[in-house]
Amino acid sequence: MGFRRMESVRMDRGATPNKSFDISTATSWVRGRGVYVAFVVLVIFNLIATPNFASVATLSTLLITVSPIVLVALGVALAIGTEGIDLSVGSVMALASAFLPLYLGYGWPIGLSVALLVGALAGLVNGSLVAFVGVQPIIATLAMLVGGRGLAQIFAGGQSLLVTDPVILWLGQGRPFGIPAPVIVAVAAVLMVGFLVKRTTFGRYVVAIGGNRSASYLSGHPVRRTLLAVYVISGLLAALAGVVATARLGASDPSNIGLLIELSAITAVVVGGTPLSGGKVKVMGTVMGALLIQLISNTFIANDLPFTWAQVLTAAIILVAVYLQKGRGVV
Amino acid sequence: MEHRSPVLEARRVTKRFPGVLALDDVSFELRLGEVHALVGENGAGKSTLIKVITGVYRPDEGQVLFNGGEVSFAEPREAQAAGISTIYQEINLIPLLSVAQNVFLGREPRNSLGLIDKARMNRAAGEILERYGIRADVTAPLRSLGLGVQQMVAIARAISVEAQAVIMDEPTSSLEAREVETLFGVIRQLREEGVGVIYVSHRLEELYEICDRVTVLRDGRVAHTGELAELSRLQLIAHMLGRELSEVEKEGATGFSGEHETAREPVLVAQDLNQHPRLREVSFDVHPGEVVGLAGLLGAGRTETAKAIFGAEPLDSGSVRVEGKEIKTGSPGAAIKAGIAFLPEDRKLEGIIPDLSVKENIAAAAMPRLARAGMVSEKAQDELVEEFMQSLGIKASSPDQPVRELSGGNQQKVLLARWLCMNPKVLMLDEPTRGIDVGAKAEIQKLVDDLAAKGLGIILISSELEEMTEGSDRVVALKDGAVVGVLSEEEITENNLMEMLAHGEDSGDGVQENGERADG
Amino acid sequence: MSTRPADTESVGGSPAWRERLFTTLQRRGAIVVLILVVAVSAVVFDNFLTEQNLENIVLQGAFLGLIVVGMTFVIISGGIDLSVGSMVGLGGILAALTVQVSWPLALILPPLACGLIGFGNGLLIAKAKMAPFIVTLAGLLGIRGLALAFANEKPIRIGGGSPFDWFGQGQILGISVPVIFVVIAFAVGGLVLARTSYGRIIFAIGGSEESARLMGLPVDRTKVIAYTASGALAGLAGALLAARLSAGDPNAGLAWELDAISAVVVGGTLLTGGAGTMSGSLAGVLLLSILQNLINQVGTLGSYAQQVVSGFFLIVVVVVQAYLSRKERS
Question: N or C: which end of chain A has fewer CB within 10 A?
Fold first, then answer.
């Protein structure tokens, strides 16, 4: 009992699958890689205009300054990927920074572990509120932002404590093979998070939750567990950033460390191509975003331009980046 | 019937979306004082035509005319201001606001100070609802009322605006018989007042009761326009499907062949499912190779039942057994492991993950199987995806294409592939052919048949009566969250089904109330 | 033929009275908490209820209060405005720069300029359909940069004796002028929110923007107005603050947007939009201000502890709200 096959639907081949090179293909290529293009343009500008730009020292400074931002931005990128956010990263840095010297007396393994554990715990609190209680991520991590730094200062007794353990100091100031240790830490983190996102089921769950949470849930994904893990990882990365920054400074600084870094992190993530609505995590894009933003500041400073205008320029770039992202939606 | 002047007209309208030609050279005319039926299968273009007329979309070609003059509405607000009122199928009101606030939103009565006069607003709202026979607390938040009442409020709001043309898109989908009568009374009144009404519905009996003329859309084109009285039902269906009349008579309106062999032991047993207030003691079973249809009006609890079985919604009490073993409720993971698959009603909201690729979407539920130690095996994934893209005929430029770029029919196939690659024992389909074109629809219907033939137990939810009647071996009818009857085989006719849904009695022989087979 | 079930118990919905109880608790809870906190504080701390102390509390909260009025509208409409803190800084700088030219200008230019920026925010959000979080985040960065640039990163003193000072330091009938401003703002804001069409449309947009559009409501226009107002109020707060401090500080208002969001949320407004009250936001601002005051009263807790308590308080409130929301829905 068959039936006659219906006439097939007329498909309008309006969007050509043929890859002919034309303006629209070019613009869409640029859109997807805007941050790289912008970075290259800025580097070229600097090569021309900024004295002493093409030196190891400049590169080194840039990479060292950007390392904590990259660490923190990776965690924020994961959170944003699930359509959430983590505003508390700066305060978690402060927490780690406060706890580190307190426990270094027991040896660097203990000190380091405690600092990282504190970050993980903060992430656990954030994640539990988001995943199990259903609090908006912006509010939950806002509370941690507000309370975390205060907590850090209380535990540190409001003081800046010196860090003298050689292993830890090496983490911030050492140069294995001529490469600054913070940079190596950051690169390792980038590789790990990139691996997580691209090759593991966890990474799939993250983008699925951000892309369509209901669909993810109905596909049997462990939504709550994944959200919890995302915020714990973000807390760990922030703690790591705090340790590295503290090591570099040679002292803890719970009042100032990581101040306002969440803004830089979010900027790096967004400019790097990860949409705020989640569903996609661009790890390399985030790194490039951080580099771009930092390079903008450095360019202004090196060329004696008022630094505050760098901030204005950064704001403009955010708007442009997001506006371009919008172009890829359907009607 | 003398020729009345057109109040609303679409002239040679064409509308394209990426990958799809939604409207192709469509001309449509609504006259003053007429009730004009707009019919067509899902995906034929009815919604798109309405959205073009009311300014939600701009036509790529063609014009829209209102009272003889060309108009180009930039947004729904302008169409409303001009005198075109629309009642949508989904209740487009604001659930958190009160009933009265919803009725008067944007045009609240003011007092002498220019502020909203709450007392007068509430009173006026009460009066309007009275007129439609609705008794409800106008200060209560809208979402606390049943869907039927919410829809009546939407209708009341649309009509209280002085409109010259009223468009109703599936207005009766959540209404009970009594409310439908009220609505028809309102429509007759509008007709008398010279208002033009566009009535979109696939409930043929309703059309024949209230409409004057009919326009049939098929695949984005006008298949027929004329007086409804001159067209028999079968002729109408034939126009909608594009098939010969004799064929429709013989083979039915869908791609279902209707006959399946089923085993004796059930593969799924749902027992006394309770979830206050939406489900009440729902029980039924499904056998391998059987298609069980869940029928009911909107809000009857069909989707809730399927979701409860799948563990997507928690249960107050009740059990679900697969092949005799009880499974944990409230956990989709447990249901999936036991072999249950669920295709949700709204693929945009709960189905596809829009920015991910076709292959990532297909593999979404299979993650635990495709991964070792948490790492996804791309090779295994690609093989699986390739196999199902072939067997289901999914049309995409490559497995890496973002799934949101596919047509509705292909997206639905992707979702089917997601579940079929899990080798499920039970497959629950909630409106599987909604919003897709006729060709893909028939393909999917045939696929369901094939799956039943292979031994899957299938639960089918569809608001298209022909799908239910032609596709199901048994039909379980739900009303207000409880099972009101079961129909088997020859008993499954449109009439019997409508009776059962209206009056809640079972009208078959040898059928038990709780939905299990008499001989089971 | 079955008859329609009684009004209060409908299929597919919960009993209306139960839903309304939880809704009321969630929306008006802040006021109840405020009263409780005031009562307890009055008992525990001797000088809590003194005129001096109460004035202090209200004055401290006044500047934040102006921002909260705008933020309430924006959040109820389903959006957010992160740029208001930076606008306070910019407003102060603009006031300080123009006060020599003409003191009325110092009061009018900041709200005008920041309102214009808010208008820009609104256009990007409503017309270009960009996410409010991002647009106003860019605003936060860019506007602060502008303020710092205009001020050369240092506060600008306002020479003593200018009539402009009165707006920050003067009093009418014993009430500080900024307080009068904020009281008027809350009153007008509350009235508009609850009793005008515009207010209803704000709720509608937050409740379901798509439905609001389909209902024919002027969604874009309403949003733009909300962000414009938010900006103008922030600019005004900046000007008044500068008048009070006799100086425009480019770093004024740092992180105030977070405080404003906290106040609004504590006040019972849903962050997702569609529900909230101006009175709740007022209670929220007062609660935050009282919290600060209490911590200072205790004295032994440093400002660090104040932050911890604030954060903890916010969490508790939000958790309770989430719980109530869930009860509302089931």
Answer: C
Which parts of B325-430 fold into alpha helices (H)?
Answer: 332-338, 358-362, 367-370, 378-392, 408-420
Task: Give pLDDT, residue A84.
Answer: 95
Does any CB of chain A come closer than 8 Å to the CB of residue C130?
yes
Domain A32-327 classified CATH 3.40.1350? no
| Contact (CB<8Å) C302/A158 | yes
Considering the domain boundaries, does residue C4 fall inside one?
A: no
Which residue in A has a C-alpha nearest to residue C147's C-alpha?
Answer: A308
Backbone angles phi, psi at C248, to 5 degrees: -95, 120
How confident is the model over B429-445, as pLDDT tens digits? 998 987 776 677 788 88
The pTM of this model reads 0.84
Assigned token pair, B399: 């497995």
Helices (H), B74-214: 76-82, 99-104, 118-131, 147-160, 177-192, 204-210
Are A150 and C308 within 8 A, CB to CB? Answer: yes
DSSP for residue B115 = S
Owning domain of residue C248:
29-38+48-329
| Spatial CB neighbours of C189, under 8 Å, sequence gap ≥ 6 | C69, C72, C73, C278
Q: Which amino acid is at A322?
A: V
DSSP secondary structure, C15-30, as one string: -HHHHHHHHHHHHHHH
Q: Which residues face B61 on adjacent strands?
A: B14
Does residue C6 belong to any structural domain of this protein? Answer: no
Q: How many domains does chain C have?
A: 1
Given a contact cutoff of 8 angstroms between Cβ atoms, the answer to whether B404 and B352 are in contact is: yes
**Looking at this protein, which amino acid is placed at residue B20?**
V
Give residues 306 to 325 of B whose Cβ lies within 8 Å of A: 310, 312
φ and ψ of B519, to 5 deg: -105, 5
Element holding B21 (H helix, E strand): strand B20-31
Ordered by start, the domain boundaries in chain A are: 32-327
Going by C-alpha positions, the residue among B54, B345, B299, B303 that lies closest to residue B179 is: B299
Residues lower than pLDDT 50 in chain B = 1-2, 505-520
Name the CA dihedral angle for B53, B55, B56, B60, rounded to a multiple of 10 degrees: 70
CB of A219 closer than 8 Å to CB of B364: yes
Number of Cβ atoms within 10 Å of the Cβ of B349: 11
**C134 interfacial to chain A (CB closer than 8 Å):** yes
Alpha-carbon torsion angle B412, B417, B419, B424, nearest 10? 130
C2 lies in a domain?
no
Q: Is B353 on the interface with A (CB under 8 A)?
A: yes
Any idea which residue has 């050369």 for tokens? C152
Q: Considering only the beta carbons, identify the residue of A15, A205, A214 that sits closest to B18.
A: A15
Residue B143: Cβ-neighbour burial (10 angstroms; 0-12, 13-18, 19+) = buried
Q: What is the pLDDT of residues C117-163, one digit of tens each?
A: 999 999 999 999 899 998 999 999 999 999 999 998 889 888 767 78
- Cα separation of B238 and B236, whole Å? 5
Give residue A291's Cα distance to chain centre. Answer: 11
Strand partners of residue B85: B166
Structure tokens at C62: 């006044």
Report the DSSP pairing between strands B35-39 and B340-343.
Answer: unpaired
- Interchain pair C19, B144: CB under 8 A: yes
Q: Please tell me the distance in Å from A103's CA to the nearest CA on chain C.
A: 21
Which chain B residues have a beta carbon less than 8 Å from that of C197? 106-108, 116
Using an 8 Å CB-CB cutoff, list chain A residues near C315: 129, 135, 140, 143, 147
Best of C304, C314, C316, C323 to disrupt the A interface (most A CBs within 10 Å) is C304
**In angstroms, how far is CA B404 from the centroid of its own chain?**
20
Residues 277-296 of A with CB under 8 A from B: 279-280
Q: The domain spanning residue C122 has which CATH number?
A: 1.10.3470
Element (H, E) at A319: helix A307-326
